[in-house]
């Protein structure tokens, strides 16, 4: 009888996803009420920053513990090498498809064809310019060399995800290599992961407040009028991202007998959270947990998802392609087929070479547009709405990396179908 009463009580509770939506609506209302109010904007930004900080506090401990345990249980360096190679090839193919789709959308819909740059309000992008200059000067070799950690604890302190992943992989392999002696390490890190997932659940109860504050600060700074002049550009970007998720990612999952709608249902709360915070890191702990419940093996999801947040940013790739063509069209610069192929190649290289750079999507655009003759300062006109588009591309990145973990797990025949069926059945109850 008590179980029945508990079930009824649970059914009366408002789900996290709905609470985040309510927080989003309240945040928009507060943003409109406190438009250009510096004190209110500062307060909302600080509350939102504290929430993101709580999430970031959890991310690296989960990556280290889950990935080390997953690799240790995998135990086969040849399998790890195969998984790593498959993952990188998959990332490169999907990112390229995303860029091509963005370029097709830019050519078909021409979002910048009817825009007069002289009527647009410019935004200060000096910080992006300096970041782009320093990032591009290092080149791709600088990025490759920066993957190797010299001090693991410094990597943790600086939140260098790729260095943490590399250390965790080696630590996991070493743990597996010493056999039974390594079991104590696996048990301890398993417990650490469980603790951090529990902390994640607690922190996520604050998500409606954090989300409301973040979106409120954005609206209060920009105002709803900022959507008017660049509304078509935003519409084209979002339409392309939706097409990519449903058609491209949906098609890839269909090959492996997974329905994209089921994935959307599983990731509903995380998609709302990603949209409102514009932070992939905010969703990483729950993505790892949910993909494990979905049937993906611990080792694969713990490796693929964190790595994907550096190398598989499909939403960002779409935005960069559309943004570059938007600016060319706004400046009445006609791009030949050869120039657009050059743009494709440059985007493929720069998007990988600047993984982990702050404001990477915008920085990549700055480093790319010069290759097609567009003035870098022209991007100051779309910088104002970058946050709004960032919300959408973060959702695509989250869905894209979740999809990648399923595909790699299925291709390795390391996907638990029974676990998947049970989880989906429970979700539909």
From TrEMBL:
Q: Name one GO cellular component term.
A: plasma membrane
Gene3D superfamilies, A to Z: Sodium:dicarboxylate symporter
- Swiss-Prot/TrEMBL GO biological process terms: dicarboxylic acid transport
What are the recorded GO MF terms, alphabetically? symporter activity
Q: Which InterPro entries match?
A: Na-dicarboxylate_symporter (IPR001991), Na:dicarbo_symporter_sf (IPR036458)
Q: Which UniProt keywords apply?
A: Cell membrane, Membrane, Symport, Transmembrane, Transmembrane helix, Transport
This chain belongs to the protein called Proton/sodium-glutamate symport protein GltT
